[in-house]
Automatic annotation (TrEMBL):
Domain Cytochrome oxidase subunit II copper A binding positions: 92-225
InterPro entries with a match to the protein in the record: CcO_II, CcO_II-like_C, CcO_II_C, Copper_CuA, Cupredoxin, Cyt_c_oxidase_su2, Cyt_c_oxidase_su2_TM_dom, Cyt_c_oxidase_su2_TM_sf
Cofactor(s) recorded in Swiss-Prot or TrEMBL: Cu cation
Catalyzed reactions per annotation: 4 Fe(II)-[cytochrome c] + O2 + 8 H(+)(in) = 4 Fe(III)-[cytochrome c] + 2 H2O + 4 H(+)(out)
Keywords attached to this entry: Copper, Electron transport, Magnesium, Membrane, Metal-binding, Mitochondrion, Mitochondrion inner membrane, Respiratory chain, Translocase, Transmembrane, Transmembrane helix, Transport
Keyword Transmembrane: yes
TM helices/strands, residue ranges: 27-46, 66-85
Membrane topology classification: Multi-pass membrane protein
Phylogenetic placement of the source organism: Eukaryota, Metazoa, Chordata, Craniata, Vertebrata
Protein name (record): Cytochrome c oxidase subunit 2
Length: 227
């Protein structure tokens, strides 16, 4: 999760988030180079009296400043489209979890099991234990196995919500009457926090999401104890 005064993105936990981090760095470097070039040209124009009368009329210059931006846009668009299609792929998920947004809590249903579902509410501040995080802890965590492709089906019972976990690179809208889906695969165990990312009413900021990613053997024991 994020730490105080953090400037960058959260550490990647899934392959998709690693790709997003690389694309972020790639794009940021292009923006930095363009900004540096523009700043250099502006500083030259302000600090020198030398002018070239034919520069602004040169056909070669106009050709360069037309083609170069097009090439830069292509260098940004191609990796972006690749990641976009990767995020939409559903490759034989081993587990399916249905998530429903409510005002103002989440409910989860493990559709591969006959009767495994629960509601997940935020723990009030006065009930927090030492070491727990304010506005982020829930009474029922979503326990999922690591290194397994998981399909999340996301919808809503009332108004628009958004199911988002930044360290996994996930953000999917929960829309009433519509079933959206996304996939996740965590590469290491741990607790991963998220929140509703769509303004959904007065208690919008009190809809945290907590994923507890564990090895497959631990998940099987947990699921057996819940049935």
């Amino acid at each position: 999760m994020a730490y105080p005064f953090q400037l960058g993105l959260q550490d990647a936990t899934s392959p998709i988030m690693e790709e997003l981090l690389h694309f972020h760095d790639h794009t940021l470097m292009i923006v930095f180079l363009i900004s540096s070039l523009v700043l250099y040209i502006i500083s030259l124009m302000l600090t020198t009296k030398l002018t070239h009368t034919s520069t602004m009329d040169a056909q070669e210059v106009e050709t360069v400043w037309t083609i170069l931006p097009a090439i830069i846009l292509i260098l940004i668009a191609l990796p972006s489209l690749r990641i976009l299609y990767m995020m939409d792929e559903i490759n034989n998920p081993s587990l399916t979890v249905k998530t429903m947004g409510h005002q103002w809590y989440w409910s989860y249903e493990y559709t591969d099991y006959e009767d495994l579902n629960f509601d997940s509410y935020m723990i009030p501040t006065q009930e927090l234990k030492p070491g727990e995080l304010r506005l982020l802890e829930v009474d029922n965590r979503v326990v999922l196995p690591i290194e397994v492709t998981i399909r999340m089906l996301i919808s809503s019972e009332d108004v628009l919500h958004s199911w988002a976990v930044p360290s996994l690179g996930l953000k999917t809208d929960a829309i009433p009457g519509r079933l959206n889906q996304t996939t996740l695969m965590a590469m290491r165990p741990g607790l991963y926090y998220g929140q509703c990312s769509e303004i959904c009413g007065s208690n919008h900021s009190f809809m945290p999401i907590v994923l507890e990613l564990v090895p497959l053997s631990h998940f099987e024991k947990w699921s057996a104890s819940m049935l």
